[in-house]
Amino acid sequence: MIDFKTILAPDRGQPARALHLVDAAGHDDWLRQQPPRHRAALIAQRFKPTPGAFAILPGDAAEAWSAVLGVKDAGVLTPWCLARAAEMLPEGSYRLDGREPAEAMLGWALAHYRFDRYRKEEASGVRTLLTGEPQRIEPVLREALATMRVRDLVNTGAGDLGPAELEAEVVDVGAAHGARLTVTKGVDLERGYPMIHTVGAAATAQRAPRLIELDWGRDDDPRVAIIGKGVCFDTGGLDLKPSAAMRLMKKDMGGAAHALALAELVMAARLPVRLHLLIPAVENAVSGAAFRPGDVLRTRKGLTVENTNTDAEGRLILCDALTRAVEGKPGMILDYATLTGAARVALGPDLPPLFANDEALAADLLAAGERVEDALWRMPLWDGYDEMLKSDVADMVNAAEGAFAGAITAALFLRRFVPADVPWAHLDVFAWRPATRPGRPKGGDAVGLRAAWAMLKSRYGE
Hints:
The chain is of the alpha/beta class and 462 residues long. Helices cover 32% and strands 20% of the residues. It contains 15 helices and 20 strands. The chain has helices at 27-32, 36-44, 83-88, 105-110, 137-155, 163-176, 187-192, 194-200, 243-246, 254-268, 314-327, 341-347, 359-371, 406-415, 449-460; strands at 8-10, 17-22, 54-57, 66-70, 92-96, 127-131, 180-185, 210-216, 223-228, 230-234, 274-284, 296-298, 304-306, 332-337, 353-356, 377-378, 396-397, 424-428, 432-433, 443-444. Strands 7, 8, 9, 10, 11, 14, 15, 16 and 18 form a 9-stranded mixed sheet that branches. A 6-stranded mixed sheet has the order 1-6-5-2-4-3. Helix 8 runs antiparallel to helix 11 (314-327). The radius of gyration is 24 Å and the shape is elongated. The two termini are 30 Å apart. The model has no long low-confidence stretch (mean pLDDT 96).
C-alpha cells in the first residue's frame, strides 16, 4: 500500500533528480545547449518532444541521471503534463528544473493510483515530487484522494457494493468529520420517500433501498445540498437491459461516489457552509416486487408519475431526494447522476453536460471547470421539450417517447422538483474512462468533481 502523503514533499534542498520540460517549439534550441553525451542519449532513445515522451539523461555518476519530458507547452503546466513521467520513472525524489510544479502535482499524485481490491500488483514504489510551496501539498492531496475515492467506489463490483455498503462508506466519511447521519429505510422510506422505496423494492432484504443523509456545518452558514444517484446496480428492471448494456452497471452509483467525494472535500477543508448530503441508494432489480411499466407512482412532492420505462429509474429516486433537499431551504443544490446514455451520445465520456436553472451558478461552474481543466459543457433546459413529459393519466411520465433529447428531458423531469428561486445544477456524468490516459487509467473516474469544488471554494472561501 502506497503512503500517498509521501508522493509530494517540501523541497528543502535534499538530493533529487531533475526533470526538464521541452516542447516542440523550443526543442532545437534546448538540444543545442546540451552536452554531447545528452545528445547521444536522446538519439539512442529516439526521443521526440511530444506530450508524454521522456528520456533519461546521463550524469557524472551512475546515479546522477536526470530526465527530459516532452510537453505540449513548456511554458504552461497542466494537471496532467507530468503524469506519464510519474507512471514510468523509477522510485525516488524528483525536482522540476527551474520552476514550481504546483499546477502539475495533481496528475503526479493520481499517476500512483492502482485499483488492487481483486488483483494484487507488484508495488512500483513512490516517486516523490518536491515543491517549494509546501502549503499547496495538502489541498492537492485532498483532491487526489477524493478522485481516488470515486475511482475505488465505481470500480468495485456490485456484489461487494450494494446500498448497505454504500451507506457504510458514507458513515466512515461522516464520522471522520463529525457529521450527523440519518438513514431512512423500511416502512419510513415507503411512507416518506415512495419513489426510492418503489425503485428498490425488487431487491433482496440485504440490499434494501435507503436514503442516506449527512448534515455538517454551522446553522448560520450558507446551506448547500449535494445529491448523488446511488443505483448500486441497474438491471433496467422489467424493461431489462441487454447484457452488453448491463456490463458496466456497477458504475450506476457513480453520481453518489461524486457527491460523497465532493462532500468530503467540503468537510476536510472546513468550508464555511452548512452541508446537506443526500444519497438515495437502491438496486434496480427484477423480482415479483418490481415496479411495472404503466404503474402510476406518487412522489414525495405529491406529483404523480406514469412509469413508461423502468430503466429510467435514476430520475425517480433523485426526485424524492431533491424534494427533501428543498425542504431544508438550501441556497444551492448540486446533483450528480449517471443519468442518460443520451448525454454520452451528445458529448462523449469525458465532457459532462451541465444543466442549471441559474445563470450565475452555471457561469461559475463553467469558469471553474476551465480554470482547473475539468471541463463541463452547458446544455439547455429547453422549455419547448417540457411537453414531451406529458401523460394522459398522471402529472407526467418519467421517460419521453422516442430517442430525441433524452438528456434534456431527463433534466426537465428533475427541474419539476426544484423551485425556480433555488439555484440548482445537474451534472449527467459518465463516471467511467473507456481508455487509459496518463494519470487516468481505464475504469471508474471523477469528472466534474474538481470543477464543482473549485466553484465552491471561489464562492465560499476555504
